[in-house]
# Entry
Amino acid sequence: MQLHRHTAPEFKTVSDFNLLPVQIFELDNGIKVHLLEAGSQEVAKIDFLFPAGSIQAAKSLLASVTSKAMIEGSEKYTSAEIAEKIDFYGAYIGQQTVFHNSVLTLISLSHFLPETLEVLEDIVKHPTFEQKEIDTILERRKQEYLIESDKVKTLAARAFTQNLYGKEHPYGNFVAQEAFDELTRDEIVDFHKKAYIPEGTHIIISGQPGKNIKSLLNKYFGHKWNTNSPLPDWKPEIFQGTEKEVFIPKADALQSAIKIGRPLFNKLHPDFHGIQILNTILGGYFGSRLMTNIREEKGLTYGISSFIMTYKHTGFLVISTDVRAENRELAVKEIFNEIKRLREETISEEELTLVRNFLSGDMIRNFDGPFATSDNYRGLIDLEIEPEYFNDFFNVLMRITAEGIKDLAQKYLQEADFITVVAGK
Amino acid sequence: MINIEKRTLDNGLRVVVHVDRSTPLAAINILFNVGAKNEYPDKTGFAHLFEHLMFGGSKNIPSYDAPLQRVGGDNNAWTNNDVTNYYLTLPADNLETGFWLESDRMLELDFSEKSLEVQRKVVIEEYKQRYLNQPYGDIPLLVGPMAYKVHPYQWPTIGKDISHIENATLDDVKEFFFSHYAPNNAIMVVSGNVDPDHVFKLADKWFGDIPNRTIDKKTIPAEPEQTEERKTSVERNVPANMIHMVYHIGSRTDENFYTTDLLSDVLSNGPSSRLIQSLIKEQQLFSDINAYISGDHHPGLYTVTGRLLPSTSMEQAEQAIHNELDKISTEKVSDYELQKVKNKIESTLVFSEINFLNKAMNLAQFELLDKAENINLEVDKYRAVSAEGLLDIAQKTFKATNRSTLYYHSKG
# Structure
């Protein structure tokens, strides 16, 4: 048999996209539960989304420290006992604070859910917030903050969002060093009482939690344990930074971190799906324009990417890379060249097809199984978007044209809208 | 239970298949039995540089990435002390594209001066980004040469000295390829929504005519037993002091591996573990602390590493760690505590069986070390660990003469 190694084998394109079905039900107290039941292992991941994000907290560190401190002692169990129990059942508890909610995650073997949920109930409803535990958390966080402040990448990222949204806006991500010394236990206790409440809380379950999951959740979380209404979802004026170029010197840096980006919009904007495709072409995959030019042709960096971040009320696009100081100007120039090419030249059918096929494969990867699907689904809750949204993206991906890409580039990739931040030398 | 089927082709390529019908995707994982330990002391960093060159086009296919992306695939690779591992995922219907691409780069690379020149620069930037321009990034560069005087584990995967990468020639690269990249020095695992017979047919078709090659089996010198305590102290521009201690232990295939692994879990797996409860929460000496083992194919290291709070002196920190290690070397771990770390391992193993790509990577490692089927014996091997065994290994491991300590001082 003669092998044709020069010729690619036949292949099929992905022609449809199937999302795992999401079952939605309510607990007795109205908490909305989203269930993605699938998978071959008897394992479940449960995310609790409390209306307790940094926006509701309206004070630096308050939301994230409250979330961390909750698992450090409750009425029934000391901090050490909580840790012992969760470890003994082979489970994990994770916390993540974002702008509009705080997420408490439990990953557990399904047959231990009655035990692990019982511990979680006491953590959520009756945390004791001992001063000593708060101090430990603040001291660790402060050190991590200082270590992060030593990285050019972090310095550039902070300056970027602060310049985009201002230091006053929570989206600006500004934390003053004094904030670590100013947070009090009273504020944490008060915030917990007002934000860890049934109203406005969502639960997302993925995996195989078992047939009795609804009654289990009702037993531990279905009562009206707190009748407060959610804190206002503060939507402040978005300040637009006026600095087009920001430089943060760091004398001992061996590389400079570059962030070049522009403000965008949230997921509801009609161009959102299209701009995700445009972003992929620019810097969203290994074969992207930026990777090809700046890494694979010029060897200026280990990596370069562009990325779209969305929040409930807005979003941004940012290009990030680390290069040595003498290559900085060339890298910035080439980044703007690639942006210009997208505005001025029509993308070839070959490249567009490649990106379309890559992204459709990527969608299958991103939604492969219940856990991956739930991570993506979680991003829709803030804006009450239906899961149909992902099918809409798939349809846009199948139909977008080279002209459509160019129109988007002309609309959103104008140099005048971009800011450039460099940290290092 | 992970079901597998496997075959060995005439040229020595071992092919392992695991069917997982819960995904529409497939993975191909190819592991080459070459890592940093197979390098010569004056040409370090080659295995990793090579990993980069494997994406620069092969004999008959000018670009590796684009044809894979065109069929909805994605890929990456990593290199460590022992192996270089390449993996891709794609819609299962397009499996053959993966075979086409992977077999051509196993057959022969398109050795080009241009690709070498670019990837040399990229790796140098990677070296800076990961090791030199990060707080604490140079710890691996400092610890290796202290713990290993003879064995090549003394240099990190990125290389001992960046000049070795800067000076790499195309002839060096070709020689490295033909003495390590060969079907008889590789394991291929295919997992996901695939049919084993179809996979074996594709393997024959695409890999069957790749010639086996003579592998450079240079003797790797064994590290002599350490007989004196070693210490190194450095001062860096970082916000907090760190202490980093390593002890010599056995290899991944050592009969005591499972006991040694649980010995690190007792100290630091999970929030209830000893180091976290005692040194972070009760004594409040550290802001972060960790204990782990390397799992290297040759005798490796047991590491204890911690970041100090500003109020803790280096002497206090060191003493506090020694106290915990003394305790575990003199008092038997309770039945409850042993059961707890075993439960944790069991659930970790269940979680690791969720993802088809993860399973492919793990199966390749097991096949290389002995046989892929052994993956299903892991739980029983951990269950068999006893409290007496932990005590015995702790006593043998945590001796001052078996220890190297790095004191990483903050300049501030």
